[in-house]
Amino acid sequence: MLRTQQRRLLAPIALAGVAGLALAGCAESSSSSSTGSDTVEISGGITGSEADLLNQAFEQFTADTGINVVYTGDKSFEGNIVTKVTGGSAPDIAIVPQPGLLASLVATGDVLPASQAVEDNVDENWSSDWKTYGTVDGTFYAAPMLANVKGYVWYSPKKFEEWGVSVPTTWDELMTLTQTIQEKTGSAPWCAGFSSGDASGWPGTDWIEDLVLRQSGPDVYDQWVAGDVTFTDAPIKEAFDTLGTILLDPNYVNAGFGDVKSINSTAFADVAAKVADGTCALTHQASFLSSNFLDVTTADGQTPTVAPDGDVYAFLLPGFSDSDQTYVEAGGEFVAAFTDSDAVEQVLEYMSSPDFADARVKLGGVISANKNADASLASSEFLTEAMETLQDPNTVVRFDASDLMPATVGSGSFWKGMVNWIDGTPTDDVLAAIQAGYDN
Fold first, then answer.
1. Secondary element (H or E) of residue 316
2. Does the pLDDT value for residue 8 go beyond 60?
3. Strand order in the sheet with 283-285
4. CATH number of the domain residue 219 falls in
5. Is 155 in a helix, a strand, or coil?
6. 197 and 231 housed in the same domain
7. Maximum Cα–Cα distance for the chain, whole Å?
8. What percent of the chain has a predicted confidence (pLDDT) above 90?
9. What is the bridge-based pairing of β-strands 68-73 and 396-399?
10. Residue span of the structural domain in which 380 resides
């Protein structure tokens, strides 16, 4: 699911690397600056080095305005923010990692609608879809902040050259590539990790969401998110069956870790090391996996280079036809306010501007879907390409489906269902159990 990288990281994981980033296992972080009347306090699930970089992104803003911004990361943010708000301990601003949680916060009655200036910024700088994700019951509350692109297939360009294979452009070509690598190496080409503490299973939901979008199209995807297409309906079963040709085939997984069932015991970010050392030829993960490669080494003891001709790179999961249409599943965060003050308003206007996007993107490891941000500032060629994909008006972008679904399904029965499916539960039984999450 999306989670966005930070959400995945909340559980004892390795990430969200993403969060794309280097999230897993990060300690909580906050600014050491003293607070005062012109201090705005922000809370969210971004922790560790990512939190430090987020605080740095406000340095010029503070110099220009005199407003001190203090971001504090909380690894349990998603689980306790509603309780904090209802208990009277809301931050001035919250960075919310999914629209479903935003809706829960709005239901407390404490989230302030966005000002006209913030709304104007979003209208100018983001697509209408991103504005919709920050809207609840027709009222716009939360501007988008950062983003990540799901649905990448990570691989080794050097190994592809050695094997005489190329990046596929259709699903059929991807399956031919899979078979070719298996025949050339005698080993499983794919690796996957679903383990993420209480969030285990979410990498599988990302796979399914990518396939639903590519196989059945954005209209069916939207109907599925809305609950009008159920998990037991044909389009969703088709996605599971298609994924099963990879993840349930012992000839194709789980490279470097074991058999099919080892997928559930493998931490999602651990696949980075196997791709970097050549043990695993292919893995499916979001743009935020690029950060995890900074924590591993190649056979010669070096940090792997992420480049088209380097140690590792990625291509978008191909579609099911030769169409040039690009389909992308994305995740991201949204900025919601609980305090009505001039200082908070100035921070919100800054965070919804290209200036903030440029400041944070330039610091490294993340991207933004802000159409007027400078993608060339991203910290790698890969992240620049990912950001340009999100900014391209011709790209069909859909937010992580599980993040849009009710929590009892999206981060409940759907996650659990993916784990059970890998463990051998029949697909029809898994789909019925996931759908039953709506009854809760």
1. strand 313-316
2. no
3. 283-285, 152-155, 313-316
4. 3.40.190.10
5. strand
6. yes
7. 66
8. 82
9. unpaired
10. 5-149+330-397
Cα–Cα distance measured from residue 293 to residue 271, given in angstroms and rounded to the nearest whole number: 10
403 within domain boundaries? no
Sort strands 68-73 and 139-140 into parallel, antiparallel or unpaired: unpaired
pLDDT of 16 above 70:
no
- CA–CA dist 154, 386 (Å, integer): 13
Q: CA-based Rg of the chain, rounded to a whole angstrom?
A: 21
Q: Residue 148 in 3-state DSSP?
A: strand
DSSP structure class, residue 298? -
Q: What are the pLDDT digits (tens) for 264-316? A: 999 999 999 999 999 999 999 999 898 888 888 877 888 899 999 999 999 99
pLDDT in tens, 34-82: 344 599 999 999 998 899 999 999 999 999 999 999 999 998 898 899 9
Kindly report the pTM of this predicted structure.
0.86
Angstrom CA distances, 179 to 165, 170, 251, 276, stand at 11, 14, 9, 21
Q: Which residues contact 124 (CB under 8 A, 6 or more apart)?
A: 372
- Is residue 269 exposed (0-12), middle (13-18) or buried (19+ Cβ within 10 Å)? buried
Distance separating the N- and C-terminal Cα atoms of the chain: 19
Q: How far apart (Å, rounded) are the C-alpha atoms in residues 154 and 317?
A: 10
Helix (H) or strand (E) run with residue 256 in it: none
Residue 195 in tokens: 């383990």
Tens-place pLDDT, residues 311-336: 999 999 999 987 778 999 999 999 99
Task: State how far the Cα of 439 lies from the Cα of 370, in Å rounded to an integer.
Answer: 37
Is the same domain home to 258 and 378? no
Half-sphere exposure (CA, 13 Å, Cβ side) for 197? Answer: 15
Closest CA to 271 of 24, 2, 3, 4: 24
Number of domains in the chain: 2
192: which 2 tokens?
Answer: 């996957």
